[in-house]
């Protein structure tokens, strides 16, 4: 930071920048004559990437030199990673989630630090430049990609990054998301009714209903302590619904997703498979959605 004029105590004010490679004894010095200067660039083409230097800055004017700042350590610029992550694996967790894992490049195969990894994910009907990107921090070597479309082929790749940029991409892996729970259509176009049975040793009096338009990434949530809840949905769009119990001790497991197709001359009934401590869904076509919680015991 520059020194204010009222503290310069005379004309001819400037700065003395002293620096040395970390661990060495002799200081190199240079003079920056402008009192408004706030930076100095030392150029040396032989400098290895990300080299540590000790730096201190002093001041002077026509009367002589002042004191130096405390010594701090700075680093020369680093290069982006030169090797790609290896052993990339991916698997579908649900109709909307994919898990991907990888192994980092070997230490002797890249220059500079690795600050984290960037996962790119794009569907088979999208261009790679429009890929969804997720960044991890540090040495984390797995990630979950969420809010995807069901029964869709996705391509995924990983690359390391640091302050200089991203390195080369790993080999691409392919995985298809699971099929969403769809409803069989019948005759009545009026509404959808959903019931939930929770597989646990006690009845959960608190339930969350999560629903979203199929093309949206974020879900709306309704919480209730009652045994039923009703909501209206447009019946010209596909909807995804999940139900899960919650309490002061935390959230329970979500039911599998159930898809409510566009309601058109339809009478629907379907069911989602249950999992441990999750809710089993069944659905009957109406405009209103009702919910009942009961013990499965």
Summarize the structure.
The chain is an all-beta fold and 297 residues long.
- How big a fraction of the residues is strand? 35-45%
Low-confidence stretches: 182-191, 199-204, 265-297
Number of domain units: 3
Helices, by number, come to 0
The total of beta strands comes to 24
Please give the radius of gyration in angstroms: 30 Å
**CATH A-level architecture of the largest domain:** Sandwich
CATH superfamily of the largest domain: Immunoglobulins
Structure commentary:
It is a single chain. This protein has 297 residues and is mainly β. It folds into three domains: 5-75, Sandwich (Immunoglobulin-like); 86-177, Sandwich (Immunoglobulin-like); 191-262 and 282-293, Immunoglobulins (Immunoglobulin-like). It contains no helices and 24 strands. Strands 1, 2, 3, 4 and 5 form a five-stranded antiparallel β-sheet that branches. A hairpin with a 6-residue loop joins β15 and β16 (220-224). The chain starts with 13 loop residues before the first strand and ends with a strand. The model is unreliable at 182-191, 199-204 and 265-297 (pLDDT under 50). This is CNTN4 protein. It comes from Alectura lathami (Australian brush turkey). Residues 1-79, 84-180 form the Fibronectin type-III domain. It is found in: Cell membrane. GO terms for molecular function: cell-cell adhesion mediator activity.
